[in-house]
Amino acid sequence: MNATDPAATGTTATGTAASAPAADGGPGAPTPGGDPFAPSTGAARVFAVTGLVLLVGAFLVTVVLMLRQSYAGDGAPGPLRELAMWSLSLSGLVGLWAMCLPGDAVGHRVRRGAVFVQYALMAGGPLLAAFDPS
Hints:
The protein is mainly alpha-helical.
C-alpha cells in the first residue's frame, strides 16, 4: 500500500481532512463568535419586549384621547373606540407570541414580521382614537 493513497490516509485528493474543519483558524474554520451579521432571535425578542413596554404608554394615550372626546363631545366616544382597543389587544398578543415562542419553532423572518405587526397595531390604537369622529 502506498503512503500517498488518499483512501489509506483518510484525506481527500487535495490533502485536507474530509470532514474536520481547520482548527487553526484557516479556511473552513468557524468564526469564534459566529457571524456577527446573522439574524438574531434574541434581538427580535428584545424588540418584542420593548414593544410590550411601549404598549402601556400607547394604551394610556388611547384612553386619554377617548376620555377627552367623550367629555368634549356628546358624552360618548365614537365608533372607532372598539377598533382602537382591539388593535391594542392584538398588539399585545402578537408581541407575546413573538417573545415567547422557542427559537426553533418559527423562523427569524416570521418573528421579525410579527414584531413589525406588533408595532403597527400599537400605533393603530392611538391613531384610531385620535381620528374617531364624534
